[in-house]
Design goal:
single chain; mainly alpha
């Protein structure tokens, strides 16, 4: 998650102070990734250091405002245009857990998968209810439509993500069942023995090689 660019996107709409940025960020994302004020001001300090934002005076209540600079707008445009890098995916706790559970003594991997599947399905049901609420808010026209549309996109991504996770868990369990059946049937090829480092013995001499050859023009000597 790029808090840095998220704050720049909000500041492009006009100068804002830290708590205001936190509220608007969470409104846009449905509080899926909550921020604390300290995190916001730390990021603003770095943006100011890099010349992407600058102090923009104070509001009537004395809050220090921040404004995006031309350099910040250029950075924001580049962020929108660049695809998200997928070559270095973030660590996934569930994948690591299953990888460590395979072959771990006293761990039933299928029980781990089943417990996670129940949790994943509950999360998917929760996200589906939130999606219905966001759609209802948009259709009623009683709330800020831009924030509701933004939240709808976020929650739909979460739904697709949990659906994919549930399918992967089903696939993982089926894979483990098939491998266990193959192992019981002996269909899984055993590990080949290590190669013998000693050289192969010399081949035995053939019978034809050891048979006495007749001398030229006569019988073999007695």
């Amino acid at each position: 998650m790029s808090i840095r660019h998220g704050l720049l996107a909000l500041l492009e709409r006009g100068p804002r102070y830290g708590s205001q940025l936190r509220t608007e960020f969470e409104s846009r994302t449905g509080s899926t990734w909550p921020l604390n004020v300290g995190q916001v001001y730390t990021t603003l300090a770095r943006l100011e250091r890099d010349g992407l934002v600058a102090p923009g005076g104070e509001d009537a209540a004395g809050h220090t405002l921040y404004a995006i600079t031309d350099t910040g707008r250029h950075e924001l445009r580049g962020w929108y245009e660049r695809p998200v890098d997928r070559t270095n995916p973030p660590r996934d706790e569930l994948s690591i857990k299953l990888a460590m559970a395979v072959g771990a003594p006293g761990v039933d991997v299928r029980a781990v998968i089943q417990a996670q599947r129940h949790a994943t399905i509950r999360a998917m049901q929760d996200y589906t209810r939130l999606k219905a609420q966001a759609l209802a808010a948009i259709e009623s026209g009683k709330s800020q439509e831009r924030d509701d549309v933004a939240w709808l996109l976020v929650v739909e991504q979460l739904i697709f993500q949990t659906e994919a996770e549930a399918r992967w868990l089903d696939h993982s369990e089926s894979r483990l069942v098939r491998l266990s059946v193959l192992a019981e049937r002996g269909a899984v090829p055993p590990t080949p023995p290590a190669a013998d480092p000693r050289p192969d013995p010399a081949p035995a001499a053939s019978a034809s090689a050891t048979t006495a050859q007749p001398s030229q023009g006569g019988l073999p000597h007695a």
